[in-house]
Structures are given as structure tokens and as C-alpha cells.
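Two entries, shown back to back:
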Amino acid sequence: MNNTARYNYFNLFLRITVGITAVLFITTKLINDFPLQLNDIKTTNINWYLLIVVLVLGAFNWGIETYKWRFLIANVRKITFIHAFKFVLTGITVSLITPNRVGEIPARAYLLNDKENLKHLIYYTFIGSYAQLLITWLMGSVGLYYTLNLIEINIPSSSLLILSLLGIFLLVAFFFFEKIKLMVFKFFKIESVIIKQPNQFLVALFYSFLRYVVFFVQYWLVLEAFNIHFTDINSLWLITVCFLIASVVPTLLISELGVRSSVAVLVFSSLSDNNLSIISASVLLWVINIGVPAIIGLFGLKELRIKN
């Protein structure tokens, strides 16, 4: 068997493995890690109209991410929105088999099948994720300021606020301190990066903020659909705190639905003692934003191949 044949068989094996693993992951999560009683769910007064809106917003969520990714990689690769959207969804599929979904970044780059610009594509995809994390930490820090008296956690909320502000500083430092940027470029083995900073990064931040707003509204509506009501404007900031805590939970745990649900119960316990509804809302949002796109992304796995 020649090298070309081995290469083709390897990529076929890779696609099948990723596809089966992703399907098993989603199935396992919904069956084993879904700590809900079906009978209880049926008797809950759910607002289905709000859930339909949440589902529609899910498409907007990943549509905005697609626009952001296309904008960043346009420096080295032009791609249509349809193709970019397909690769974004397939990236979600691949990410399910990696800790904390880190596999999503290289997966998108490999899906473009551009060996010459692979490192640059990975870097630009990384920049998009970095911008999203910065928005998450920034909004979460503001949320902590407004909800210090609402969150019941063992770690002092003031400590979380300090840590989040430190994280924001480190994130911003990457883009404004040349030595730090050069260290990252060296890590990616990139001699020069074609990006006009800070303009392009600011645009990436804008897209990231839009996506954050959509995700924020989704979480608000899905909680309202399960009769978890916010008492005032300040209590709405709890959603940003939930995002913040989820972003700093240890990598190997955050992929677990059980942990995501626990974070939701921890943060929103001041609004309601109905843990079942809080968990239901959290899991359903995961299904809409991650589970469904990952299943659709299975159809794009045929494009995934590792260059020999």
C-alpha cells in the first residue's frame, strides 16, 4: 500500500471516528447526564413560544460567529458564507471530542484544506475565540460588581471579581504589548501576521459582543420559559456571571452537562429554588446551541482531512 492510499484511509478513519464519537457524546449527555425526571418536565408550565424564539436565536448566534470568522481569515483566504457556516458547525462537531472544545480552532483551519496558510488560519481562528473570551470576562466582571450580594458561593465574590479583572488585563495585554504578541507568534511558528491591529481586533470584538448579546437573550428567554423570573435589572447580570464562571471551570469538567447545570443552579438559586427548571433550561440551551449544530455539522466531516 503506497503513502497516498494510507493517507486516504487515515482520513476516512478520522472522519468516521469523529462522527461516531460525536454522536455517542451527544447521546450519552442527553441520556446519562440529563438529571431530569421526564414526568416532572411534562407537568411544568413551559412557554413554548419563547423556546421557539431561543431556537431561532441559535441560528443567529452561529451566523454571527461565521461572519466574524470569515472577516478574520479573509486576510489569507476568501470563502463564501455558506461554506464558512458549514465549517463552523463541523468545528463544533469535532470540538465535542476534545477537552473544553479546544479542537474547534484547528478543526476549522483543517477543513479549509489550505496547507500553505494553515498556521495563519489557526491563528486567526484563535484570535476570534480570544475576542469572545475577552467579552465574556469583561461582561462577567461587570456582572459580579452588580450581583456581589446575590451569589451564594464558597469563594468570596470579591475574589472572583479581582481574578476576572486580572484575566481581562492579561487578555488585553496580548494585543497591546509587542513582546507578548511575538511570543504567541513564535508558538504558532508564524514569522509575520497580516492583521491590522487594533482595527481588525476591534471588529472581532464587535462581532463577539453581538454574539454575546444573542447568547445573553437566549439564556434570559429560556429561563423565563421555565418560569425562572428576574426580579430587576441587577438580577439580569447573573447571566453574565454564569458565563464567566463557566469559562473558568477546569477544562476537563466544563464539557460535562452536569457541571454546566451545577453552575446554573449555583448562580440562579437566588431567583428560584426550583432547581429542576434551572437545570432544564441550562441543558436545553446546550442542546440548541451545541447539540443540534454538532449533529448538522456531521455532514461536513467529509471535508476534514489531515495533510500528509
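entry 2 starts here
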Amino acid sequence: MWRVKRKKWAEIARERMLILLSLAHDEALSHNFERARRYVFLARKIGMKYNVSLPRKFKRNVCKKCCSFLIPGYNAVYRLKRKKITILCKNCGRRMRVPYK
């Protein structure tokens, strides 16, 4: 019984996270970064509560330190070095390194 409820809760949480992250993307494109940060913060909070990770397509676009939605050229710098993508958040200065596939 508990597993069935947990699956339903996780599915609902995943849907809500997708909605919030797509809203954050739209707000970041319209240069409203504070509202986008709030949407990302709420999505991460829902994910932590129900033990659901961020969707893969949004995982690289979110800074884990300051919860800002990263848009290349506005608040993020993307560099390709030595088989890695280096993403620099301009808000907090955190570097994220992601290997090539």
C-alpha cells in the first residue's frame, strides 16, 4: 500500500517540478531572474521532500549553490576544455564540470 502511494506522490512531485522549471525558464528568458530563482528553489524543495531528482534536461541549467536558472550569455559562461564542459555561474561564481558523452 505504501509503495503505491509513494509512486503516486513521486509522479505528482515530478509533474510539479517540470511545471515550475518550465516557468523558471520562461521568466529567465524575460530577464526576471529573481522570480526564476524562486521557481527553481521551490522545485528543488519539492524534489528534496519527495526524494525526486531534477529532470535531466533542466539539471545542467540550474546552479546548485544559488538556485539560479542559467542562461548562456546572461548569467552563465560555458567553456569547452579537455573533454569537459565548464559552466560558470556569474551570480555566485560556482563552477560545474560536466564530461562529454
